[in-house]
Structures are given as C-alpha cells and as structure tokens.
User: What shape does this take?
Amino acid sequence: MRDVHVIGAGMTRFAKSTKSLKELAGEAVVDALQDADVTTDEIQAAYVGNAVAGLVTGQEMIRGQVLLRPVGIGGIPIFNLENACASAASALHLGWQSVATGIYDVVLCLGAEKLTHPEDKNRGMAAIGTAVDVELAAEMADEMAEQMSGGTESSQRSLFMDLYAGWTKDYMQRSGATRENFAQVVVKNQHNGARNPRAQYGAELTVEEVLAAREVVWPLTLYMCSPISDGAAAVVLAAGKAAKRANGRVPRIRASVVVSGNVHDQSDPTAGSSARAARTAYETAGIGPDDIDVAEVHDATAPAELMIYEQIGFAEPGGGGELIASGKTSLGGTQPVNPSGGLLCKGHPIGATGIAQICEATWQLRGDAGDRQVDGARVALTQNGGGWLEGDSAAMAVHILTAS
Amino acid sequence: MRDVHVIGAGMTRFAKSTKSLKELAGEAVVDALQDADVTTDEIQAAYVGNAVAGLVTGQEMIRGQVLLRPVGIGGIPIFNLENACASAASALHLGWQSVATGIYDVVLCLGAEKLTHPEDKNRGMAAIGTAVDVELAAEMADEMAEQMSGGTESSQRSLFMDLYAGWTKDYMQRSGATRENFAQVVVKNQHNGARNPRAQYGAELTVEEVLAAREVVWPLTLYMCSPISDGAAAVVLAAGKAAKRANGRVPRIRASVVVSGNVHDQSDPTAGSSARAARTAYETAGIGPDDIDVAEVHDATAPAELMIYEQIGFAEPGGGGELIASGKTSLGGTQPVNPSGGLLCKGHPIGATGIAQICEATWQLRGDAGDRQVDGARVALTQNGGGWLEGDSAAMAVHILTAS
Assistant: This one.
C-alpha cells in the first residue's frame, strides 16, 4: 500500500443556498483543483458522494457525471456513492483505496448535497428520513408518533431528531451527562463556527441561551440539532511523484476505515460501529486516541458529540459530559473537537459532510485554519456516520491523517 | 494485481414480480453464497448496485444495508453504487478492484432493481428518465416532444426509447442496416430467452411478427425495446486460497474496465465510451475480439446490439446488419451474443443487469448454461452501459472473463 496524500482541498460555504447542486459542486471542485495545482486532465478517476439528489432535485442515477461535466471532467471512471450521511466519507475511502493500491495516481473525491428546495420546504427533511429501512419505519410510524414528545410538528424536524432524542435520554441515564453539557457542546461549536468563514452559523452564546431556545424534541433544543444545509466539499488525493505540492504541505491519510452497523446495545459505547471503526483506524495507523491533536466528528446533535468522545476513546464510558465541561475539547484546549463548528454550526449538507471534515483536517494540519487554527496540529481524526438500521449506524467511517 | 475469480453466481428470474426488492436481492445473494459454498461470515465487503430504489420504493441512502441485513450480512463495509443501467457493473468493478489489490479475499457484488410499482405503473418509467441530466432534459422537453414520432403516449415509454430511435435512424443511414436486421436480433434473442429459465420472455418469432408488432417509436417496435423488469443478480469474487470451489470451476476476471462518456460524434463507432472501454479491456487481457467465444451486451434496444457489434470489434464500422444476418452471433454460430436472451428477453432490471451478464458469462464458462450453452466457451465478454449525457453513455463497463 502506498502513502496517499491530500494534495488539494476545496469547499463551498455551507448555507441554505440559492445555488444549484451543480454550482455548489463545481465551486468545490475548482477550488480543490486549484489548491492542488492540478488540471482536470490529470484527474484519473472520480468518486462522488451524494445522498438525496434523487429525492430532492430529481437527479438520480448519474449524479457525479452531471456534476462534473460542467467543470470539464468526463471520460474517466466516475463512481456515485451513497451511504446516507457517510456518503462522502465512503467516496473518499474508495478514492483512497484506488490510490493506495496503485490503480491511480491522482483522483478526485467530491461530496455534494442540496437539501433546500425552492418550492418545497419539507422535501429535504423527508429525504433524510430515508436513511433508515423505510419499510420498517412505515411499520413503526404509529409507535414512533407516540414516542414523540416535542411541541413541534413532525414535518418540521427529521425523524433522526426523534431517534437522537431517544438515544440521548438513554445516554443521560447511564452517563449522568446533563442538558447543560449538551449546551456546552453548542457553545463551543458556535464559538468555533464564528471563526470559520465557510460555516453556516457561529455566535457567542451562553449555556442559558442554548437551553432557552425552542425545544425540537426533549431534551434537544434547536441549537442542539444540526441544520438543513446545502454545500459541497472536494479533495484531490495522490501518491508518489504526483503527491508533490509547490508548498510541500500534503497531509497523509494514515487510516481509512468504513464499516456498517451491527445490531448492538446502544448503552455499550465500545460495541457500536463508531468504536469499531475507530479501533481499526488506530490499529492501522499505529496511533492512539491520546495522539490525536484535533478531531472533526459527527455531531448531528450536541449530545452525539459526547457519545462520540467515548466511542473514539477521548473519554471513558460515561465520561463525555465531564470532558466537555473540562474545556479540553475547546479551541485552546488539549484536544479540540470540531474546530470547524462541526455539523451543528458549520452545517450538515449530508452527502458532503464526510469530505468537509477531511478539508478541515487538511487545513488544520497545514496550519491554514486561520482564527480557528489548533496550534501545532500534527495528527487529526475524522468520524462520519450515516443512516440507522436496527440499533446502529448503517455506515460509519473513521479517517486518521497526519501533517506529512 | 492478483487473479480474481467468480466463485459463485446467483440470480432471480427476471420478471414483473410481486416480490419486494428485499426478497429479490435476498434470493440472488443466498443463491450466490450457496453456489460459492461460502457463509455470510466469510464475506468481507459488499458492493451493491441499484439505480432507482429511491424514486420507485422510497428507499434511498442505505439500500445495500437494508437489502443485506435480512440475509444476515452486516458489520462489513457496504458500498452503494449508482451508475444508471451500469450500476451493477460499477459495483462489480469496485469489488474486483478490492480483491485484485489484496484489500479483501472474498467480497459480494449485488445488483438489484424493482421497476414495477403495485400502484403506480409509470413510476419505474419516470425513474429511468433520470439517467440523463434532468435539468437539460427539462429544457429540451419541448424539442424532444416535437421529435417524437411514435403513436403511443410518452408516459408509456421511456425517454430512452426516443433517444434510441434517434440514434437508430442515424445508424440506419450510415450503415445501411435495416429494420429487418433489428428484427433478426429480436428473433435470435427471443429464441435464446426461451432456453433460459431465468429470462422474462422467450419465444420462436419470425422477422415478420417482430415488424408487425406495435410501434413504440419508429423504427422500434415493441419487441425491439427491452422491457420493464424486476430482479437481482449476485456474484462472490475471491482470490488466492479463497478462490477454490469444490468443483474447481472458477472463471477468472481478466479485465474490468469502467469509463464515463465523452462528448463525441455518434457516427464514429470507435470514438465512444463503449469502444474505448472495450479497447482497454482487450489490451489489459491480452485478448482480441476474435478470441471471444460468447458475449453478453447491452441490447436495451435491438439496433443497439448491432451498434455494439461494431463498438466491441465484432464487426467493422457499418457491418452490424451484415453480422446479425450471417447468423454468426446466434446460438450455434461462431460467436454467439446474448445467449441469455439479452436485455430484450432476459429482461432489464436496470441496476441488476451488469451483474446478471456476469452470471451468464460464469455459467457459460462453467458449461452450466443448459439449453443455451455455447459449446466450448472459454472466453466471455460483457458490455454494460448506463445513462446518457450529451452525446455518449454516462457510464460504460466492459469485462472479459476466461474459464479459469
């Protein structure tokens, strides 16, 4: 296996955008190619992650070809990957694999998503609801409706917020983590988002303000739920001679792991797909949780970030609340998490998120992260989960990168 | 690169089915695992092709996980691939790549599609129409409507039949191929389908009967258009020690090529994605067109088979009509094409077709093809195209297999 480097990264601002999916994808790709200083002709294959274009824009089947043609990329192998919110990380994994094994020297990995629809506000939300077994979900609909405790209409929130609320209540019971802890995650990620020009949201909030916000579904307030976002992110991967950049800063992918979920007991943070993927990644890279300088993780809700701390070994089981309260995962702490603002504040255009995390890791490891730079970041971890299937994420990806 | 073998193949009958996509996929997977004599625990990764489940069944995002869970496959990496009618071949290619490069020893590749919908007859047909740039198609809708010359309502046929009709008219002009030649393709493939228990259609027809059938859009009659089908096909790929079978018959993948289309002049059969993919496959395998004993090609319409003859080097440019008329591509001829019945008669559940072709190639090379066996078949070629984008297929796959 050859060393694979990220030689270029590009990303749109994440936002509720009036731009089309084509425009967003094109912007990210052009940025990544320019950053890598490669031309479209040098790209030997493309791996494209998208989750819901078929349901939101009507473009199914050949999404990558349609997105890449306007920027002049065609003829090469193009693979369209779908793994719910882990679509982009899955595309990245296959791109990494093709370069690591010597099939190609230079590939493009793109994640792009448009969740907003000009005429149908609920379309994106409804599409997100297909990241489960839709037959089972239909059977469970009555039961789930009864379980819903929030004061808002279900059409205004994703099915996933109800799922997360359930997991969160279980998590509070077994860990002692509190709603204040969840609010602390929001305060941190909003603070970080305010330092990220590509983030959808960012502000200086207090724990009290977060708790006082509209309740989506108890115990989650609006600030604790990742927003509906549009956006795209792209990276160029290369090995060997092609992995040179004018400035020499080409972070190296030390581990790329994708797994699918097993049925498991949610109360055991070491049993699920996230912990399993992280363990394999650490073993592959010969790197442990304590070695990670900066992490971008899948905080689709604020409490999820705390659970992930435990799953990736940043905290002992039940220690997520204590870790956020300690400030260690804040910018300026010993192990900052989600300096980009995370899904909560950078935004979560679902099929783009996995590669957006890699963009942030790349910029952090290159020292290019501006006001949100983690000082001396040399080792980064990203964790990106997708979908839900009877007790676990349907897809889970963990990547570890080093500065060179 | 290691030698990769097909150690098991399984396939449902293709048909308008009352079974669910889960049932169809499960049936094909269980068949393939039994044929390979491997257990679900031995499968290290799965690559799943599907094109329209999001639009037809509502299941987007995690299709493979949802299909594989009921047969007991989970935990492993599962990748959902989409490349229109070449979705399954794309999944196969990535599975092949992962075994050839030593990432895994045993993988599952599945293609599954359900185009019929119990309540909405037009849903599958409409979904197929997303295998183009849907924005461009919307812009072109008026123009295309004017071009339509058929006597049937557009809702009763796919956009692709109109596209194929246009290409066919051009092809007739430049090659001299006639509607009788197209009918000869149908007669051949119907004859073959009648010998394939998994084929949707099969009968002994005459050229006159084919020409007298209802016109879909001139010059295509109903028999010249591939049907709406449901079905699934799966193969188990392996290398090294894992590539042993009790009976020793494990066809080897000698070339696996996927490309995307470039804008090109349709009148030059050597310029498009199909010819390009075939040339690369022949070079990789060190095998030429004359060495192919049997081929399964993408006869989405009858005239397409003639154009493909030229693209894959079975005939000179313009020689497709002459080749079908010669009988060489019939069962019993020197170079049979589509012994399975092809897309026209075996059926075309679009996201399953690419792997169904590999199943047929496997059975032919093992001597397991029953009444449609090509005597002494040692070398097989499959060609599977998907989607359309400004002058060429959006995705194109060519595979070459040998008996061992």
